[in-house]
Design goal:
Strand content: 5-15%
Structural class: alpha/beta
Number of domains: 3
Number of strands: 7
Helix content: 40-55%
CATH topology of the largest domain: Rossmann fold
Mean pLDDT: 87
Largest sheet: 5 strands, parallel
CATH superfamily of the largest domain: Response regulator
CATH architecture of the largest domain: 3-Layer(aba) Sandwich
Oligomer: single chain
Length: about 250
């Protein structure tokens, strides 16, 4: 069966081809009754809009990209990303948009950005000086930063990592614990905490502030800090390492 065209719909509905295009791509340009009439004719004829042609006309894809730092399988093993994607999916669904997961292409997030057919990105945990952020700025691509120290001209969604970490450590210390373990996000810094930035640096600052109030320090032998991948397996391995060590933490 031949594919139904907008010319056929226009002829059947008694309107111009431009009106048919508006009915699907920019219905605010037409009266609601006209939009309903055109779409009813299109449905009866079995017309399905071509998504590629539609995006070329509107210059929109109605898709929002979540830039992932890892392949999709690895990212979904991270409980944070699993819940984050679920939340984004709910919002996109209500807005009539598609959520596209954008993992690294050939091992590079920067290479993935130009190939993603999306209207904008949500990026998590990247610092403003990263190449990916600079690339999106140069391409004038809309994006929102999450869990990052974003400049004033970039939309961002953040939590107060420093205060949260400080409150968590204060809670532990107030209950008398001194054999304490901190499991930090894997940083790639080789354990050099002085090189931490962003979320890691903020949380570490909170831990330090709480410890200092109790006369302790991060380098106290009773305080252990290890890094772990952000996955269930990474958490289990970190716990096993601490539990099998010579100094088991109590908190």
């Amino acid at each position: 069966m031949a594919k139904v065209t907008i010319s056929q719909i226009a002829k059947e509905a008694g309107v111009s081809k431009t009106a048919v295009s508006f009915a699907f791509n920019d219905p605010t340009q037409l009266a609601p009754a006209t939009v309903r009439h055109i779409r009813e004719i299109a449905e009866r004829l079995g017309y399905t809009p071509d998504p590629i042609a539609r995006s070329m006309t509107t210059r929109r894809t109605n898709a929002l990209g979540l830039l992932l730092p890892q392949d999709i399988a690895t990212a979904l093993a991270n409980p944070f990303y699993a819940q984050f994607i679920r939340g984004m999916g709910h919002v996109c669904g209500r807005a009539g948009m598609t959520l596209m997961l954008v993992p690294p292409l050939w091992g590079s997030m920067m290479k993935a950005i130009p190939h993603a057919t999306v209207d904008g990105f949500v990026v998590v945990g990247l610092e403003v000086d990263r190449g990916e952020i600079q690339l999106m700025r140069r391409r004038d691509m809309p994006f929102v930063m999450v869990d990052s120290e974003a400049p004033d001209d970039v939309p961002s969604v953040n939590v107060d990592d420093r205060s949260g970490a400080q409150m968590a450590m204060e809670h532990v210390l107030a209950r008398g614990h001194r054999q304490i373990a901190i499991v930090a996000i894997e940083s790639g810094k080789g354990g050099h905490t002085e090189e931490y930035t962003g979320t890691l640096a903020a949380r570490l600052g909170g831990y330090r502030a709480a410890l200092d109030a109790y006369g302790l320090a991060l380098d106290d032998p009773r305080v252990q800090l290890i890094e772990a991948p952000t996955s269930w397996a990474g958490g289990r391995a970190a716990f096993a390492q601490l539990w099998d060590g010579s100094q088991r933490p109590t908190a």
